[in-house]
Design goal:
Layout lengths: L2 E3 L5 E3 L20 E9 L3 E8 L5 E8 H6 L3 H13 L8 E6 L3 E7 L4 E2 H5 L6 H20 L2 E2 L8 E3 L5 E3 L6 E2 L21 H4 L6 H18 L9 H10 L10 H10 L10 H5 L2 H4 L27 H7 E4 L13 E7 L3 H14 L3 E5 L2 E5 L5 E9 L5 E7 L4 H8 L18
Antiparallel strand pairs: 1-2, 3-4, 4-5, 5-7, 6-7, 8-10, 9-12, 10-11, 14-18, 15-16, 16-17, 17-18
């Protein structure tokens, strides 16, 4: 049986994937908060278990990551990035990260449980109808568009990373290879080689830099083809031969494919990224629009400011753990060092006042401003990522304002914005002796 380490450092046996051992038989419970169940899957660095939240009784998935293997593989930065990315993504077609827990040897991702399993397992049983293929592609694009609007590029989209919930709705998962906008180099492109061979875009193979949004579109096109056909558009037992096919972008659709879908796939699987269809164009394509139900503000309400005193909209334990060292999550790995420039301040002002002040300063500096949920993204020329401001409620009276910036925005925030926002910072009243 596989083992998992609990909070006191002891190991306990965990039921395997056959599910023959009931969750109730497992003891002790993880952090006395989650009752562990069967093993759902495992990889080189992590294992995923089904579990039950003892507070609510709801099912969750727990991803257990071995710290020692992560450190040996120099993958700490990937884990930090995955946490930071998943923390801010709230969309009905993206697996939600509830919280992160850690011991001396393990890191635990507590995630939404997708009861339906991998989409890949369903495709393996046979191709989908065109209407069903369109439904899942619509949900995929909705999630991808949301990610891109928040400066996140998945870079490893494939059926194995698409799950289904109990209602057979699609959920995107595994952001371990994702990139964020501040990883873009001065040439405006990403350069890290990553992805799964059969789903990777030709420009990644060319090793000349690539646009993260366009490579995600390519992977989505491969997924759509597989849903409709039941097999890959570019495939060969010889890897180099398969890469040559990808470079050329030559593929054939099965005979049952409609003319509209063929046209659509040709636009997506265009080997030239400069002429490849964009997410915006996909969202307006007639084939795609059929029966499409647009999600205008996906779960943004979870970050709205509530004055009722309820828990919704307040920082949970995961946020507080993350904020204990800003965006630096090195504490999870027992080491120090910053990977992203980040700072915070506490304010007693209304969120609207904070946002208006920052918008006014951004206008003076001729920055473009994009409102995202309860925050702002400030961008300079060529839409180069500069500064991201996110506002969260800490208590009923206080807010936490988190500011993240890349190398282009760090000095701008420090020299131009910060000195002129000092009056927004909350200064606690001094304690008087005897009170």
């Amino acid at each position: 049986m596989p083992e998992i380490t609990n909070e006191d450092g002891n190991s306990t046996a965990v039921a395997g994937g056959n599910g023959d051992v009931p969750a109730e038989a497992l003891s002790p419970n993880l952090f006395k908060r989650y009752e562990l169940g069967k093993l759902l899957g495992c990889g080189a660095f992590a294992k995923v278990y089904h579990a039950r939240d003892l507070r609510t009784g709801q099912s969750v998935a727990i991803k257990s990551i071995n710290k020692q293997r992560i450190m040996k593989g120099n993958l700490a930065a990937h884990i930090k990035r995955e946490i930071l990315i998943m923390r801010k993504l709230r969309h009905p077609n993206i697996v939600r990260l509830h919280e992160v827990l850690a011991t001396k040897t393990k890191i635990y991702f507590i995630m939404e449980f997708a009861k339906g399993g991998e989409l890949f397992a369903k495709i393996a049983k046979g191709r989908f109808t065109e209407d069903l293929s369109r439904k899942y592609f619509q949900q995929l694009i909705s999630a991808v568009d949301y990610c891109h609007s928040h400066g996140v590029f998945h870079r490893d989209l494939k059926p194995e990373n698409l799950l289904l919930d109990e209602n057979w709705e699609l959920k995107v998962t595994d952001f371990g290879l994702s990139a964020v906008t501040d990883q873009v180099r001065p040439d405006g492109l990403l350069h890290t080689l990553c992805g799964t061979p059969a789903y990777v875009a030709p420009e990644i193979l060319a090793k000349k830099g690539y646009d993260g949004a366009k490579v995600d579109v390519w992977s989505c096109g491969i997924i759509l083809y597989v849903l409709n056909a039941g097999y890959l558009p570019f495939n060969d037992t010889n890897l180099m031969a398969m890469y040559r096919k990808i470079y050329k972008g030559e593929f054939r659709c099965p005979k049952w494919t409609s003319p509209d879908l063929k046209r659509f796939l040709t636009r997506i699987l265009d080997p030239n990224p400069s002429t490849r269809i964009t997410v915006h164009e996909i969202l307006n394509d007639p084939w795609f629009r059929k029966g499409y139900k647009e999600i205008k503000h996906p779960l943004d309400r979870e970050f709205e400011f509530k004055e009722s005193g309820g828990e919704e909209g307040y920082l949970n334990a995961f946020h507080l753990i993350s904020y204990s060292s800003g965006a630096d999550l090195s504490g999870l790995f027992g080491q120090s060092g910053n990977c992203i420039s980040s700072e915070m301040f506490v304010s007693a002002k209304l969120p609207e006042i904070i946002i208006k002040r920052i918008e006014a300063l951004a206008e003076e500096e001729r920055l473009r401003v994009a409102k995202k949920g309860t925050g702002l993204r400030l961008q300079g020329q060529n839409w180069k990522y500069v500064v991201m401001v996110e506002i969260h409620r800490l208590t009923q009276e206080l807010l936490v304002v988190e500011v993240k910036s890349n190398e282009f925005g760090r000095d701008l925030w420090k020299d131009k914005f910060k000195p002129r926002l000092n009056d927004l910072v909350h200064a606690p009243e001094p304690q008087v002796a005897g009170n």
